[in-house]
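TASK: fixed-backbone design
INPUT:
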């Protein structure tokens, strides 16, 4: 494979995920296609061995490129990759995936059949015996069933497995960089902007990546709070955005105690639940309650002006 005149540039933002990158890149580099493509890994300030790992792998697959982006956040990293891309099509993929051999060829086939479309690949949660990872799989895999049954909508856009014209992306101004500081929300916003521009969202069921969750409950709670802020920000621009189902007030646990109680309960029960499918009901309940509560808190803080968004300073991207 050569990156000369690539058909598509695959962009992977990453930070401190050296082992995930080491696991993922070979599945992406050894694709079942004869069409040229390039892989751009955008290091977003790693302090682990990510740069060394990518450099090592690029000696085996020269069409792997490494660039660095100093502005924090996936919005900034993805944008830097799009700027550096050589191909007319760009694809965004998360670093915690594994790709099937037909992954790239399926994206390219969908683009040939759907000119000027944004192609959304299929993301499947990898198997895990940890109860919180199984909970995330239950939440996300269930929601993604809508992609199989109907046409994708704005909230279905996810840069974990999506491709589109580089020219279209740049003409739109790319991802809103306000989300670099927030660390969440760029995909929902971009999905609405794509539809506003008249770009069709097309689902490619055979362009599969397997998603390996790397978060645990406390980290996801922090992300849920940021997602609530993002919902508030995006909804102020797009009133049609459906709000997430928030935590019910009909609970015996006082609001201020929901998160600490849920974290303590989960820490005690998690070691005893190593089954399959959805976690045991009490554990699933506290996971769900606390995540919804933190989302509601973030949304409320945005609406009441307790938080604000600041655009990061433009320092530019560099190649290595």
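OUTPUT:
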């Amino acid at each position: 494979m050569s990156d000369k005149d690539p058909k598509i540039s695959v962009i992977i933002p990453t930070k401190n995920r050296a082992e995930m990158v080491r696991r993922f890149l070979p599945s992406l580099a050894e694709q079942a296609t004869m069409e040229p493509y390039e892989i751009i890994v955008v290091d977003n300030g790693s302090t682990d061995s990510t740069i060394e790992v990518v450099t090592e792998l690029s000696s085996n697959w020269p069409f792997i490129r490494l660039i660095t982006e100093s502005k924090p956040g996936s919005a900034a990293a993805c944008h830097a990759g799009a700027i550096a891309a050589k191909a007319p099509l760009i694809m965004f993929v998360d670093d915690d995936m594994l790709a099937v051999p037909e992954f790239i060829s399926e994206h390219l086939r969908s683009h040939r059949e759907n000119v000027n479309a944004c192609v959304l690949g299929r993301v499947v949660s990898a198997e895990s015996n940890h109860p919180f990872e199984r909970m995330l799989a239950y939440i996300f895999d269930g929601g993604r069933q809508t992609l199989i049954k109907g046409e994708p909508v704005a909230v279905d856009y996810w840069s974990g497995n999506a491709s589109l014209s580089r020219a279209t992306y740049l003409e739109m101004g790319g991802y809103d960089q306000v989300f670099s500081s927030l660390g969440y929300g760029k995909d929902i916003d971009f999905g609405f902007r794509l539809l506003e521009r008249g770009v069709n969202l097309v689902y490619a069921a055979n362009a599969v990546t397997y998603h390996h969750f790397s978060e645990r409950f406390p980290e996801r709670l922090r992300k849920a709070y940021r997602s609530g802020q993002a919902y508030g920000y995006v909804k102020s621009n797009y009133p049609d955005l459906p709000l997430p189902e928030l935590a019910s007030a009909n609970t015996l646990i006082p609001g201020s105690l929901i998160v600490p109680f849920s974290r303590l309960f989960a820490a005690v029960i998690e070691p005893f639940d190593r089954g399959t499918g959805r976690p045991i009901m009490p554990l699933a309940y506290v996971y769900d309650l606390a995540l919804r509560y933190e989302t509601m808190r973030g949304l409320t803080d945005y609406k009441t002006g307790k938080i604000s968004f600041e655009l990061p300073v433009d320092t530019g991207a560099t190649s290595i």
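COMMENT: The radius of gyration is 20 Å.
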